[in-house]
Please model this.
Amino acid sequence: MSTTASLPPTPGAAGDRPRLTFTARRRGKPPRHLADLSREDRAQVLRERALPGYRADQLSRHYFTHLTRDGAAMSDLPARDRGQLVDELLPELLTEVHTLQADAGATRKTLWSLFDGAKVESVLMRYSERATLCVSSQAGCGMACPFCATGQQGLTRNLSTAEIVEQVRMAAAACRDGLLTDGATRLTNVVFMGMGEPLANYRAVVDAVRRMVEPSPAGFGLSARNVTVSTVGLVPAIDKLAREGLPVTLAVSLHAPDDGLRDDLIPINSRWKVGELLDAAHRYFEATGRRVSIEYALIRDINDHGWRAQLLADELLARGRGWVHVNPIPLNPTPGSRWTASDPAVEETFVRTLRRAGIPTTVRDTRGSDIDGACGQLAAEALAATAPKVKEPTR
Model:
């Protein structure tokens, strides 16, 4: 998993080496949705159903601009066709299980159930100058990072393009409807830092980004510069993303500057080492002109040493200046876990070391710590609640 405000810790030893699970378990496909399709393909689907192709644009405007899939609200469509149009291209994809609020109503964390019962989370956060949605791209995660709640669940399956996009629509509607503190606002930013490894679900994520940035009726019309795609380090996918022509921000969940520790914290590091990952991140900057974010969850007595801050600075500066920004993240601890946040003084030293070296550094604002704010914790609780109970042996 990649981080939002912080990565959720789970019990275990930093030296544990869990198996990576790259392949989702077999399940049925989500129903087809207009967000899965290009603008041209939507029209073709309707023509195949003996409906006028131009109705696809009308339907798309209701979805992407008016943020609704309610046929009764589509007065510009013939009443006799609305039901069929919605059935064909706007099936229900997400069902709200429950929503928790924090930060005086500025943060909303929602647990969603998908068509097959899989659970994912999204987090909507309002700041003074923006409203940001953290979306999930997978149900569970196959990266197996030992301090991450989602990583400990394993991978259930990839989300479809439309399942990702629907999280955005629901959040945009919540902003419009004033469900965050201080009344109605507009969704401005989307970060792929929820459940899952986005680049392990590459095609669906890239197609979802296109729906986010394409103007209506093709998409929401968000700025690509306000979309962030994170990764724990799938190097070939980073290079592929650099060729997509999408000027999104790349965020690298690094969490350690040395292979010895990162092999333990991020098992995929056994395949692509720190140097290879940072080289790929620098290539992304050169191809797109977009400064890369380095995400670094500060874990007490694990990766927060001053010498590691200096090593991180040295690694980044070896590839030049002006291409990167570091976000240290205070870890959001889980009750009972040995993984916990760094002492404030240690965090300050870590940050000061980077800044003294000339590395732009901003400590990430943590959100939702009182509602299990880091992604994966609500879904883990839901899984635990539905797991078969093991009977105690009789004596």
User: Anything to note?
Assistant: Confidence is low (pLDDT under 50) at residues 1-26, 389-395. Residues 95-384 form a domain with the TIM Barrel fold (CATH 3.20.20.70). The two ends are 42 Å apart (CA to CA).
